[in-house]
Every structure is written in structure tokens, then in C-alpha cells.
Specification:
It is a single chain. With 222 residues, this protein is mostly helical. 91% of the residues lie in helices and 0% in strands. The chain contains five helices and no strands. The radius of gyration is 29 Å and the shape is elongated. The N and C termini lie far apart (65 Å).
Length: 222
């Protein structure tokens, strides 16, 4: 009799341990779903917004540098040496902003992996099969949208690279022959560069607007 009593006690302890462990796991998961998941989403949106802002600043700096070049060539400049010095400073800032934008886009792509992994882990605990499938579908759509945003921002930056390279070449040309005649001879190329720049700036604006729309769609209504 004592032997059976002992076995029953052991069995009861095991059941309580399993139940207690399950409750603890459920509590931990609940904490993640209700608090950690929301915080991760908030950080993801903020970081994404910061990246988009950096890309927008880089695009604006390319525009400003091109405008400074136009002042020197197309206006034409009344103080070429002064304006050429300003242009060189603008080029330096442009290159720094472009490099920062590329780095942050790459970092955003890496950070998204942790965000989506955490979201997937929470979805995996949903008991209702239909609801879980719906959540997985929305997750897949969000992953694709994010991938499209990253690709679009990267493509926008790459489309501006030829403009920056040609601008750099024309600036070097002026640096070797800084006078009104040389500036006037660059007129046709400067005009062509302006037209290409406008098209690429429009493409960059589309990418920036799409990225902002994506991150804004993830925000909870107030």
C-alpha cells in the first residue's frame, strides 16, 4: 500500500510540475506577445523611419550639389573661385550623406531579420489554426513589402550614382580649367545632367514615399 501511495505522490508531483511549467511558459509567452512584440514593432518603425530620413537627406544633398554646379556653370558665376570652393564642400557632404544612406539601408535589412523572427515566434504559439494561418499570411506579406522597400531604396541610391560620377567628372574638368570659356563649354553636358538628375530624383521620391507609407501602415491608430 505504501508503495502505491509513493507512486501516486511521484505521479502527482510530475503532473503539477508539468502544469506549472506550462503555465510559466504561457506567462512568458504572454509577456512577449503583449509587451516585447509591441516594443519590437515600435523600434522597427522608428529605425525604419530614421533610415528613410537619411536616404531623403542624401537625395536632397545631391540636388543641392547639382544646383551649386549649375550656379557655377549655367548662371554663369560672377565669382568662379568662390563658387568652386563652395561646390567642392557640397560634393564632400554629398558623398558622406550617400555613404551613410547606403550603410543604413544595409543595416535596416539585417535588423528586419530579428524583427520578423520574433513576430514569427509569437505567431507559432497561436492555437487556432485558421487564425494562425491568417497571421502567417500577413507576416509573409509584410516581409515582401519590406523587401520591396529595401530594394526600392537601394535602387534609388544606385540610380543617383551615375549622376554623381558624371558631376564629379565635370567638376574635375572645371578644376583643371576654371574660367568662363570652360564653364560655357560645359553648358550642354550640364543641361543633360540636370535632366537625368530630375528623372532620378523623381524615382528616389517614389521610393521614399513608398517606404514611409509602409512603416506608417504598421503604426497603431491613436
Amino acid at each position: 500500500m505504501a508503495r502505491y501511495t509513493t507512486l501516486y505522490v511521484v505521479f502527482l508531483i510530475g503532473v503539477l510540475a508539468i502544469c506549472g511549467g506550462g503555465a510559466a511558459a504561457q506567462t512568458a509567452q504572454s509577456t512577449r506577445s503583449d509587451t516585447q512584440g509591441l516594443k519590437e514593432t515600435e523600434n522597427f518603425i522608428k529605425e525604419g523611419g530614421d533610415v528613410v530620413h537619411t536616404v531623403a537627406v542624401a537625395k536632397a544633398q545631391v540636388e543641392a550639389t547639382l544646383a551649386a554646379y549649375d550656379t557655377l556653370v549655367a548662371s554663369p558665376s560672377k565669382n568662379m573661385k568662390r563658387d568652386y570652393g563652395k561646390l567642392l564642400k557640397a560634393v564632400k557632404t554629398m558623398d558622406e550623406k550617400a555613404a551613410a544612406a547606403r550603410t543604413q539601408v544595409d543595416e535596416m535589412e539585417e535588423a528586419s531579420k530579428a524583427y520578423f523572427a520574433g513576430r514569427a515566434a509569437t505567431i507559432a504559439t497561436i492555437q487556432d489554426p485558421e487564425l494562425r494561418a491568417h497571421a502567417e499570411q500577413r507576416l509573409a506579406e509584410s516581409r515582401k513589402q519590406h523587401a520591396d522597400v529595401v530594394a526600392s531604396l537601394r535602387a534609388a541610391g544606385e540610380s543617383l550614382d551615375p549622376v554623381r560620377r558624371d558631376l564629379d567628372d565635370q567638376i574635375k574638368f572645371l578644376g583643371s580649367d576654371l574660367n568662363p570659356g570652360a564653364a560655357a563649354s560645359l553648358g550642354p553636358k550640364a543641361k543633360e545632367l540636370d535632366e537625368r538628375g530630375k528623372a532620378n530624383f523623381a524615382k528616389a521620391n517614389e521610393a521614399i514615399n513608398a517606404a514611409n507609407a509602409y512603416f506608417n501602415s504598421m503604426r497603431p491608430s491613436k
